[in-house]
From TrEMBL:
GO terms for cellular component: cytoplasm; membrane; microtubule. Gene3D superfamilies: P-loop containing nucleotide triphosphate hydrolases. The lineage of its organism: Eukaryota, Viridiplantae, Streptophyta, Embryophyta, Tracheophyta. SMART domains: DYNc. GO terms for molecular function: GTP binding; GTPase activity; microtubule binding. Residues 22-281 form the Dynamin-type G domain. Pfam families: Dynamin_M (PF01031), Dynamin_N (PF00350). This is Dynamin-related protein 4C. InterPro entries: Dynamin (IPR022812), Dynamin_GTPase (IPR001401), Dynamin_GTPase_CS (IPR019762), Dynamin_N (IPR045063), Dynamin_stalk (IPR000375), G_DYNAMIN_dom (IPR030381), P-loop_NTPase (IPR027417). Belongs to the TRAFAC class dynamin-like GTPase superfamily. Dynamin/Fzo/YdjA family. CDD domains: DLP_1. It comes from the Eukaryota. Keywords: GTP-binding, Nucleotide-binding.
């Protein structure tokens, strides 16, 4: 199968939420400490503006699907809903949906929000942007916010076919970053981790030494980028970034394969293609295995009754078995089926053996099963008790119970 066929297939499987069935798809996962510039990286790759501000901006997993398309289309998907929007209103739309998913305020949720961006010039990528890690809860957050975010992050980055895109600020010591500790825990060899260093224009000193030393054992390397200024257009931002790495006295010394958003986008596309090529056979096998198991389970279920006639054909043998069970009971206590007084004897024996038992069982059913779904059992017990008191012949008892079941099937 050609590579260009596999990528759309993975996109379709992701759209079908097959991961909810336990099938892990190749995923690029963005993690980073709070205010690391993670949202800025997503904006630069997607060409759309995301919510920004103090504190946690991403409050639930944001599944971002980018598709290079001649016609621009932007829409959100969550909880089975699809909400179309546009580049101008995307920020407000995300905030509105986030409040619906995670509540107003600054709470965290593990319910994913999908953002689909079809736009000319964007890379064909699927990424998951996770909430930024923070150790201190702010007003509006629960005290266990760190544990909540850590749980979400580890859930997404632990699978072997997850690529970890760890966003680090050039202004901090990388060894102190919580996100680095998490990625090293999930990816001990570092072979699944790519580091993106942001805000390089604000802390260029010794940056080359930091990324060249690779003390963090980042197997996929480092890419350094300049964050877009808030009101700057994306075209202007790319131009300014290129100029910075060309002219800055320190940053211009960095290898060109380690700098800029375009280089990052190209590398992510390559990484995504490689992981899909590697994992695709296993994904197909896992889907086929799960399908075979489900087909086998389905084959054990009774055939669906589509008409009343089919339902009757299924039910009548069951009714016959119930009738036969009642007859066997009375024969085993010594009654003669062909006795002239057979019905009277049956009624007497029934009353003798089961009057107290029925009363006790009736009380037990009422106390243990208050649900309305068992009312038909109570009706049966009341019918039998009434039949005993009135001396109803056995044949009428059996007919009454059987007819009651038949009605219950079709009501």
């Amino acid at each position: 199968m050609q590579q260009d066929i596999k990528l759309p297939a993975i996109f379709k499987l992701g759209h079908l939420d097959i991961m909810l069935e336990g099938v892990q798809l190749p995923t690029i996962v963005l993690i980073g400490d709070q205010s690391s510039g993670k949202s800025g990286v997503v904006e630069s790759l997607s060409g759309v503006r995301l919510p920004r501000g103090e504190g946690i901006c991403t409050r639930e997993p944001l599944i971002l699907r980018l598709q290079n398309h001649s016609e621009t289309k932007v829409y959100l998907e969550y909880n089975g809903k699809s909400v179309p929007t546009d580049e101008v209103h995307i920020t407000d739309a995300i905030i509105l949906v986030t409040n619906e998913i995670s509540g107003h305020g600054k709470g965290i949720s593990n319910i994913p929000l999908k953002l689909i961006v079809k736009k000319n010039g964007v890379p064909d990528l699927t990424m998951v942007d996770l909430p930024g890690t923070t150790r201190v809860a702010v007003p509006g957050q629960t005290e266990d916010v760190f544990e909540q975010i850590s749980g979400i992050v580890m859930e997404y980055i632990t699978p072997e076919n997850s690529i970890i895109l760890n966003v680090l600020s050039a202004t901090v010591d990388f060894t102190t970053c919580v996100s680095i500790r998490m990625s090293r825990k999930a990816d001990k060899t570092g072979e699944r981790t790519l580091a993106v260093v942001t805000k390089v224009d604000t802390a260029p000193e010794r940056l080359l030494e930091k990324v060249s030393a690779n003390d963090m054992n980042v197997g996929l390397g480092y890419i350094c980028v300049k964050n877009r200024v808030a009101n700057e257009s994306y075209e202007k931002a790319l131009s300014e970034e290129g100029r910075l790495f060309e002219t800055h006295v320190l940053l211009s010394k960095m290898v060109k394969s380690m700098v800029s958003i375009p280089v990052l986008a190209h590398k992510l596309v390559q990484i995504q293609a490689n992981i899909i090529f590697k994992c695709f056979p296993d994904i197909v096998k896992e889907i086929n295995d799960k399908l075979a198991v489900n087909v086998a389970v389905l084959s054990e279920f009774p055939q669906h009754s589509g008409t009343v006639a089919e339902a009757l054909a299924t039910f009548m043998p069951i009714r016959g078995l119930a009738t036969e069970s009642l007859r066997k009971f009375f024969f085993e206590v010594g009654l003669d089926e062909y006795s002239e007084d057979f019905a009277t004897q049956c009624a007497a024996k029934w009353f003798e053996l089961h009057d107290l038992e029925l009363k006790q069982h009736s009380a037990k059913v009422r106390s243990e099963y208050p649900d309305k779904k068992v009312e038909y059992l109570m009706d049966e017990l009341m019918f039998l008790q009434e039949a005993q008191r009135n001396g109803l012949p056995l044949s009428e008892m059996v007919t009454g119970i059987s007819n009651f079941h038949a009605r219950a099937v079709f009501l």
